[in-house]
Amino acid sequence: MKPLREGPIVTLDGPAGSGKSSTARAVARRLGYRHLDSGALYRAVTFALLEAGIPEEAWATLTEADFRALQVTVAAEGEALRVRLGTRILGPELRTPRVTALASPLARVPAARAALLDLQRQAGERGRLVADGRDMGTVVFPDADVKVFLVADLRERARRRLLEQSSEAPTAVEMDAEALRIAERDERDAGRAVAPLRRPDDAVDLDTTHLAFEDQVRAVVDLVRARTRG
Ligand code: CDP
C-alpha cells in the first residue's frame, strides 16, 4: 500500500497520559497532515455499547460484525478526521471518566480491534497522516515512515491528566489516585494478548517528563522533517 501514498505516515505510541493525542494533533497541524486519534475510536465503540445498553460482561462475546453494526466511522471533514456514531459527530462525550475506564477493557476484545483495523488503515491510505495510540507503529501501520514512542513519569502523567480535567492544581491525594488509575490501565494495555502497548523496534524514544509541550511538538516535527522531505 505504500506506493499509493502521497506522503508519509507518522506514528506516535505510548502509555496513557504521555501526551500522544495533543502532540499528534499539534504535529499534524504544523506539517499540514491529518491526525488520527485511534484512542477516540476505542472510546467511541465503548460509548456506543453503553448507549445501546449492552452490558460490559457481554462485550467479549460480540463478533466483529456486531461491532461494525454499531456504525462507528471516521470521516474526513476538510483536513480534520472526525469520529462518528451513525451520522453524529462525537466529541467531549468520549472523554468522560466512565468511557475512559471502560475503553481499556473493550480494547482487549479481539473482535473489536479487528472491526476498527480497516477504518484506521483507510484513514492512512493517502499518507500525510499522524496517528497516535498504542499499536500504530506495531500493528496498524508497521511500515510507517517515522515512529515515535512517547514516555513520561507516572506522576507527571497523572498531573497532566488532572490538569486537563480541571484548572485547579491537583492535590497530592488526587495525584496518587490518578496515578493508580493510569498504572492499572497501562498494565492492562501492555499485558493484553492482542496488540499490546509495546515500543516498536524501529521507534525513536521521546521522554516528555521534563519537556514543555512546544518542545515535544518541535522534537517530533524536526524528526519528521529530517526523515522525509517534509
Ligand atoms: O488519552 P489516553 O492515552 O488516556 O487514552 P486513549 O489514547 O484515548 O485510549 C483509550 C483506550 O483505548 C486505552 O486505554 C487503550 O486501552 C485503548 N487503545 C488501544 O487499545 N489501542 C489504540 N491504538 C488506542 C487506544
Protein model, in words:
The protein has 230 residues and is of the alpha/beta class. It has helices at 20-31, 38-51, 64-69, 97-106, 110-123, 136-140, 154-165, 172-191, 213-227, and strands at 9-13, 34-37, 72-77, 80-85, 88-89, 129-133, 146-151, 204-207. The chain has a five-stranded parallel beta sheet with strand order 2-6-1-7-8. The longest helix is centred in the last third of the chain and has 20 residues, at 172-191. Bound molecules: cytidine-5'-diphosphate (CDP). Cytidine-5'-diphosphate (CDP) binds at residues 16-17, 21, 38-39, 42-43, 103-104, 107, 133-135, 185, 189. Cytidine-5'-diphosphate binds next to helix 2, helix 4 and helix 8.
Q: In short, what is this structure?
A:
The protein has helices spanning 20-31, 38-51, 64-69, 97-106, 110-123, 136-140, 154-165, 172-191, 213-227; strands spanning 9-13, 34-37, 72-77, 80-85, 88-89, 129-133, 146-151, 204-207. With 230 residues, it is an alpha/beta fold.
- Structural class of the helices, strands and pairings? alpha/beta
Give the averaged pLDDT, no decimals.
Answer: 94
Termini separation comes to 20 Å
Nearest-angstrom radius of gyration? 17 Å
Shape: globular
Report the β-strand fraction as a percent range: 15-25%
In the sheet with the most strands, the strands line up as 2-6-1-7-8
Give the distinct bound molecules: cytidine-5'-diphosphate
Biggest sheet details:
5 strands, parallel
Q: How many runs of DSSP E, i.e. beta strands?
A: 8
Catalogue the unreliable spans. Answer: none
Detail the topology: elements first, then pairings.
Elements: E1 9-13, H1 20-31, E2 34-37, H2 38-51, H3 64-69, E3 72-77, E4 80-85, E5 88-89, H4 97-106, H5 110-123, E6 129-133, H6 136-140, E7 146-151, H7 154-165, H8 172-191, E8 204-207, H9 213-227
Parallel strand pairs: 1-6, 1-7, 2-6, 7-8
Antiparallel strand pairs: 3-4, 4-5
The structure holds cytidine-5'-diphosphate.
